[in-house]
């Protein structure tokens, strides 16, 4: 979490004291979306992805067009929300949007076309799944397809733009639920808790069992290569 620091000068009986006030982070808002609405862009879509850093499971892109009157107070980057908060906002986003879509790219597809191209494909699928053509797109900083309407990328967009934060939440909750639903079938990898991301139990299972059909061999090859380099570099 990124906190805002502000220097404050205080005076007590003509003596000056300095302190730093830790302010709560600024939350996403809809001001830029509303500016675009005023310019005639009625369908402003927020786009974000989850799963890029996972060892196993799909990469998922969420796309969401919010209703103009939608109120999603205190929503933010899904990684900064607790599971309970994500579930709450997931339902609220679905109630508050004109359209939403999810684009899924499997581990096998990532191995075949790479992560960058996989993100582009997942974004194309998410936009197509909405069945409403956007007039303008606001995205987190990620690889994007070529489209015939304006598109803007924002560094940490899910902490700035409400529509991007909403897309982050629906993508994250959908992916987590998918991986948790497979936890009994792949119990040794502890997907119920790590949802495919690196963890000690996940690493232990890979060492004893090897990868499953949900694992991304592209990532695991890089991991094994680094592990071997570390082992050979030790005295």
Unreliable stretches: 1-24, 228-235
Write down how many β-strands occur, each being a DSSP E stretch of 2 or more residues: 7
Mean pLDDT: 86
How many helical stretches?
8
Compressed to H and E, one letter per element, the order equals EEHEEHEHHEEHHHH
Spatial arrangement of strands, main beta sheet: 5-4-3-6-7
Helix content class: 40-55%
Integer count of domains: 2
CATH topology of the largest domain: Nucleotidyltransferase, domain 5
The fraction of residues in strands falls at 15-25%
Gyration radius (Cα, Å) is: 21 Å
Summarize the structure.
This protein has helices spanning 31-38, 83-96, 107-113, 115-130, 162-181, 191-194, 200-209, 217-233; strands spanning 4-12, 15-23, 44-50, 59-66, 97-105, 136-140, 151-154. With 235 residues, the protein is an alpha/beta fold. The longest helix is centred in the C-terminal third of the chain and has 20 residues, at 162-181.
Model description:
This protein is α/β, with parallel strands linked by helices. The protein has two domains: 31-174, 2-Layer Sandwich (Nucleotidyltransferase, domain 5), CATH 3.30.420.10; 182-214, no CATH class. It contains eight helices and seven strands. The strands form two sheets. It has a five-stranded mixed sheet with strand order 5-4-3-6-7. The chain has a two-stranded antiparallel ribbon with strand order 1-2. The radius of gyration is 21 Å and the shape is globular.
């Amino acid at each position: 979490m990124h906190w805002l620091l502000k220097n404050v000068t205080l005076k007590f009986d003509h003596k000056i004291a300095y302190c730093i006030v830790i302010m709560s982070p600024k939350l996403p808002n809809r001001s830029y979306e509303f500016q675009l609405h005023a310019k005639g862009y009625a369908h402003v879509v927020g786009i974000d992805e989850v799963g890029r850093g996972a060892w196993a499971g799909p990469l998922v892109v969420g796309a969401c067009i919010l209703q103009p009157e939608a109120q999603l107070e205190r929503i933010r980057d899904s990684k900064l929300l607790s599971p309970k908060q994500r579930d709450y906002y997931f339902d609220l986003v679905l109630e508050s949007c004109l359209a939403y879509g999810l684009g899924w790219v499997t581990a096998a597809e990532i191995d075949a076309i790479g992560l960058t191209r996989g993100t582009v494909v997942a974004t194309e699928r998410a936009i197509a799944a909405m069945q409403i053509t956007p007039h303008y797109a606001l995205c987190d900083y990620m690889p994007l397809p070529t489209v015939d309407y304006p598109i803007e990328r924002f560094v940490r967009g899910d902490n700035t733009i409400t529509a991007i934060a909403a897309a982050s939440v629906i993508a994250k909750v959908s992916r987590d639920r998918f991986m948790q639903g497979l936890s009994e079938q792949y119990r040794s990898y502890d997907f119920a808790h790590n949802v495919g991301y690196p963890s000690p139990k996940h690493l232990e299972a890979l060492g004893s069992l090897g990868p499953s059909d949900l694992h991304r061999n592209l990532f695991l090859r890089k991991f094994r290569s680094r592990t071997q380099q570390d082992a050979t570099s030790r005295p």
